């Protein structure tokens, strides 16, 4: 005879954290629990569900089919639990939330986000952190930043809200021809943008030469304005004074997927972070690119 067992909230929090981080060790730090407790929570869930939730790979835990399906239910249960706690307090939502965003998305995304938050939750204070995605992602995973707008490097990292094309910007260097390396200004090493761009630049007949690289858009714009190199920028970040470049020798650049990504850490701000995430997903943005806002 099978005896039904309840799904404890803490088990669900642990499961969601491990699903997001791919690591029991990381989740142990984020949730401030021992690794043995984290492991026991997962085993308890697998016992109740009568199936494995994770593939145990060498470097990372990945979700099984059952795990992927259960993550949807776990997330809904946790959100409902937090909403109930917020309602029970019977008070206006207050608090401080840190929101990270790369500088090349800030102008196009942040004003609409800030306006929407202020209208819906005027008592919430937003601490704005402007850093590249390669820096934001680990800080969000560690719980140092609550939520962020990032360049999505994996489909399971965050909720996609937009697709933004990369474009050539600046001035083609004097005396350059297709047989010579093209001087370019580049995103920082390790970034998703750089990975995608370098794959396309390999198509150039004469190759390319990185003259300048930076994690911040101001430096790339300055390099393009100087005429020493062409920059490859997100279309939403190109200033009006900087011309777009179309040349038969230049390959078409890829697009970047933009996502809202929140910290897996569970603390007193979690309910607020959930609300901000939902608000960002539903916020319409202006611009010449494709958005995936939900209504």
Please describe what this structure looks like.
The protein is α/β, with parallel strands linked by helices and 295 residues long. The protein has three domains: 9-87, Winged helix-like DNA-binding domain superfamily/Winged helix DNA-binding domain (Arc Repressor Mutant, subunit A, Orthogonal Bundle), CATH 1.10.10; 93-161 and 257-291, 3-Layer(aba) Sandwich (D-Maltodextrin-Binding Protein, domain 2), CATH 3.40.190; 164-256, Periplasmic binding protein-like II (D-Maltodextrin-Binding Protein, domain 2, 3-Layer(aba) Sandwich), CATH 3.40.190. 41% of the residues lie in helices and 22% in strands. The chain has helices spanning 9-21, 24-31, 35-49, 65-89, 103-120, 133-141, 192-201, 217-226, 270-282, and strands at residues 54-56, 61-63, 95-101, 124-130, 147-151, 159-169, 182-187, 208-214, 230-234, 255-262, 290-291. The strands form two sheets. Strands 3, 4, 5, 6, 7, 8, 9, 10 and 11 form a nine-stranded mixed β-sheet that branches. Strands 1-2 form a two-stranded antiparallel sheet. The longest helix is centred in the N-terminal third of the chain and has 25 residues, at 65-89. The protein is elongated and about 75 Å long.
